[in-house]
Amino acid sequence: MVKTSAYAARMPDKDGNIAYTADDDRVWTDLFAAQMPNVKRCSAPPVLAGYSKLNLPADRVPQCNDVSETLRALTGWQVTPVPALIGFAQFFDLLAQRIFPAASFIRSRKDFDYIEEPDIFHEIFGHTPLLADPRFAEFSQAIGRAGQAADKSDYAWLIRLYWFSIEFGLTRVKGKIKALGSGLSSSRTELMYSVGSDVPQRRPFDVQDILRTPYRIDIHQPVYFVIEDLDDLFAVAERDLLADVARAKTLGLFAPLYPVIDKQAG
Known about the structure:
This protein is α/β, with parallel strands linked by helices and 266 residues long. It has one domain: Phenylalanine Hydroxylase (Orthogonal Bundle), CATH 1.10.800. 48% of the residues lie in helices and 10% in strands. It has helices spanning 22-42, 45-54, 64-75, 88-96, 120-131, 134-149, 155-167, 182-185, 188-196, 207-211, 230-235, 241-251, and strands spanning 78-82, 99-103, 170-173, 176-179, 201-204, 223-227. Strands 4-3-6-5 form a four-stranded mixed β-sheet. The longest helix is centred in the N-terminal third of the chain and has 21 residues, at 22-42. The chain is globular, with a radius of gyration of 18 Å. The mean pLDDT is 95.
């Protein structure tokens, strides 16, 4: 997770609502209009079903309170705006309570096509559709509970399971690769890249392989994991994930499939 932000958090009022501007609403409207056709073409049925259940507004930034009201009735989850980028410990703790932390700002026109850090479009448009599915909601909570019990040194290992499933997971539907991940749903370029490009590797879903696979947040992923049967993902919630992490740490990380930046160079 990134630790610094180029954006200022938008603070909610006493009722939990944020006063988004007309410009904010126009950015949301244009992002929604640009991305929804891609989602309909490239995303898996659980994602599409989530959009149908949530009925997110197309013409304004949604309020977390309104989205939470719908999610509570569906899966017991809620979305809460957070005042700043949060660390792994707080993130896991909130997931364990069925609370999804949402960055409260929306990107500027300058970052319309790509923003490295999560904004409210990524959080609401990207994440909440899967939280409307009871099975994905349970899986996300299981990740949070494992994080609560984990040592700080385990965090970077455990988060890879979330990254390569909830954020950037793929599945196969009637022989075709479809997107599951929230990071894909909210990305105009990576969504289509993930399902259609010949450049990235697409590996079978395997917990140990995922835990040992490094990633970068600022590039299109060089590798995705394809969940052939979604029951295989949901079964992970019943595993001893900390034992899985301990084994992965013993085996060590795979060599990264992306250029490693030498911070000492120059």
